[in-house]
Amino acid sequence: MFGPAGQPAQIPFFAFLSIKATILRLQPQQIIIHSYDLDTKNSYWKLLKPYVTLRIHDKNQLKGPDNRPLDDFALAHQADFLRLSILSKEGGIYFDTDVFPLRSFSHLLNSPRDVLMGHEGGNRYGLGNAIILARPRSEFVRLWIKTYDDNAFNPKNWNEHSILMPKRLQVRYPQLICPLSPAAFFWPTWAKKHLNYMFETLGPRPIPPVGVEGPAVQELRRNMTAYGGAMYANQLALHIRANHITEEDIIREDTRFNILLRDVVETPLP
């Protein structure tokens, strides 16, 4: 979690919602927030503090590809480097702060392969690095890190190493990684029509016993009941841009996103 240059990172509502959903739905043994500097006066941090570990990294002690200073690279690419370094040493489940788990991942932890990632896009052109499950010292992550130096990392090719490269490695070393369908983590996509689908108003939230839910809401609720809180059978999480959402939106307005996350808003932290 990183802030603008020279400023501490803030925890916005969408990131708080992501972390709270992780606490309630995955019940992990430990949650670590990685940052260069975090505003610990932030109201959402104060709510999360009892449930998470904050790990501050000294950027001056870290290096990017070809042993270059991290400040040579965009913040998004710094985050790419750092997540792989941490996963290589410690393993775990990595989430971007705009990932919203919908149900337990526990069945994935028994995979015979050391890394699990989800395909992005309907044509499965890449593997998304917003969610990575990895055991410590995995060979796949080692090879992935190595490509940053071996292929003369070019920051202008924005998703070359973060999305396209792991797909190439998966094709070359299929025994090292379990690739999941796009539906697991990355469907709907960030395409405009998919964002509209997730955030379109299905109607104002009815006030019982006066209001009656519309057919789209009823269908979504049936699917959530059938699939443990998800929209369809093999969906485990949403990776979606939701920085415009407020707590009041989720409570008052029926959209697909709001209904999927409403119980997280309404359920207190343990």
TrEMBL record:
GO terms for biological process: carbohydrate derivative metabolic process. InterPro entries: GlycoTrfase_DXD_sugar-bd_CS (IPR007577), Nucleotide-diphossugar_trans (IPR029044). Signal peptide: none annotated. SUPFAM superfamilies: Nucleotide-diphospho-sugar transferases. Coiled coil: none annotated. Gene3D superfamilies: 3.90.550.20. Belongs to the glycosyltransferase 32 family. This is Glycosyltransferase family 32 protein. The lineage of its organism: Eukaryota, Fungi, Dikarya, Ascomycota, Pezizomycotina.
